């Protein structure tokens, strides 16, 4: 999965087979989140909600945050974790064995994201970016959006997907088979070997 959106709730999110993912968002709640197989992850965000979070296989973790970011983070063996951060960038993130995760962020870009084994996911966000996205094993999906949210969504077998959103909440969402390289925009192309 690759997800990118620009200022006004800027973020980039990518996840490839084996639960490797990277999540980034820029100033105004800047964060970067990466997780690798076995539950290894690194999470960082810059001023205005600065934090750095890292955890290794088995739930071993290191977490740091700076002033302005009140947060609570707990993680247990098997990569079960809960992450919360308050004012400026209020979010809740949970992930359980098998890559089941839920991610929520409030005001500005309120969203909820869940993904289950096989690449099953549900994504929701509220006012400003109201959307609901669900996909089940084999890439069976349902996608809904409300007024003010112009979007395009495509997903194909393999559950590798790319998601992009630009200012004004205009977004395009696509998913391609494993090994497929998107060439429409080389700067945002995704390739999985």
Task: Walk me through this protein's architecture.
It is a single chain. The protein has 193 residues and is mainly beta. The protein has one domain (2-188). 0% of the residues lie in helices and 54% in strands. The chain has a 10-stranded mixed beta sheet with strand order 7-6-5-4-3-2-1-17-18-16, with no helix packed on it. Strand 12 and strand 13 form a beta hairpin. The chain is globular. The two termini are 14 Å apart. The model is unreliable at 1-193 (pLDDT under 50).
Keyword list:
193 residues; mainly beta; ten-stranded mixed β-sheet; eight-stranded antiparallel β-sheet; 18 strands; 0% helix
Summarize the structure.
This protein is mostly beta strands and 193 residues long. It is 0% helix and 54% strand. The protein contains no helices and 18 strands.
């Amino acid at each position: 999965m690759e997800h990118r959106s620009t200022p006004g709730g800027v973020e980039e999110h990518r996840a490839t087979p084996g639960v490797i993912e990277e999540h980034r968002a820029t100033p105004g709640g800047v964060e970067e989140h990466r997780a690798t197989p076995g539950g290894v992850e690194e999470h960082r965000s810059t001023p205005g909600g600065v934090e750095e979070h890292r955890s290794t296989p088995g739930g071993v973790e290191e977490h740091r945050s700076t002033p302005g970011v009140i947060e609570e983070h707990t993680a247990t063996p098997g990569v079960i974790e809960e992450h919360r951060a308050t004012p400026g960038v209020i979010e809740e993130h949970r992930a359980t064995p098998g890559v089941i995760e839920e991610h929520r962020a409030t005001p500005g870009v309120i969203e909820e994201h869940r993904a289950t084994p096989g690449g099953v996911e549900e994504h929701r966000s509220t006012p400003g970016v109201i959307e609901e996205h669900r996909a089940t094993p084999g890439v069976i999906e349902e996608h809904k959006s409300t007024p003010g949210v112009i979007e395009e969504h495509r997903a194909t077998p393999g559950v590798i997907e790319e998601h992009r959103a630009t200012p004004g909440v205009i977004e395009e969402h696509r998913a391609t088979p494993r090994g497929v390289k998107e060439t429409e925009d080389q700067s945002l192309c995704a390739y999985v070997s």
